[in-house]
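Feature request, filed as a ticket because there's no other form

It would be nice if the structure record came with a short human-readable summary line next to the tokens. Right now we just get the raw output. Example of a typical job, pasted below so the devs can see what we mean:
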Amino acid sequence: MDPGLAGLLGGVLGAAVGALGATASAWITGRKAERQAEMQSAALMGQARLQIEADRAAALRESRKAAYVAYSEGWNLVYATLSEAAIKLGGIAPSDPPEEREERRQAARRLWHEARTLHRSLDRLMSAVYVEGPHRMAQAAGAASGALSPYFGAVMDWLHAIDKEAETPQHSSTAGDTGGDAYGEHLRFLYASSDAVASEGPGMADR
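Raw output as currently delivered:
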């Protein structure tokens, strides 16, 4: 082969090999950059999902907390009003002047009916707890509301006994016992509320 031709061919082949090497290197570099970009994108998407879940959990926690507090405040208002009626009845003594007895009886009756009206309003607040969940909180709210019914009955029985001048110490005792039982159920609701709010977080169970 002519030396000049051989040199030319060598130069061409060398350039081709060099170009091929440069192309391969660029392709490899590009693939590395692409994989890095994919990894970064996946990491960012993961962080975004975690943030969205955390924000959702925080919003749900605050929403539930508001429902629990509103129900508890409503329950306390019913209980306090009914307890005030019981206090009025407890302040009546057989030796009191008739007008004073009548005044306290009427005040107790008014407070009992006021508590009854408030108790009906409590149903709306309890519905919010049912909607917010979880299920165990709906059960706790139902138990707290239901426990007020015997207290209502005991105070009314006491009032009727005073109306008929047939009051006995048992009336006061029964009212005190049912009132204590009702408050115990309310405390259980509060403890359950605290546990439910504290346990909520990303990936939390909703039951």
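Something like this underneath would help us a lot:
Residues 202-207 have pLDDT under 50 and may be disordered.
Residues 102 and 152 are 20 Å apart (CA to CA).
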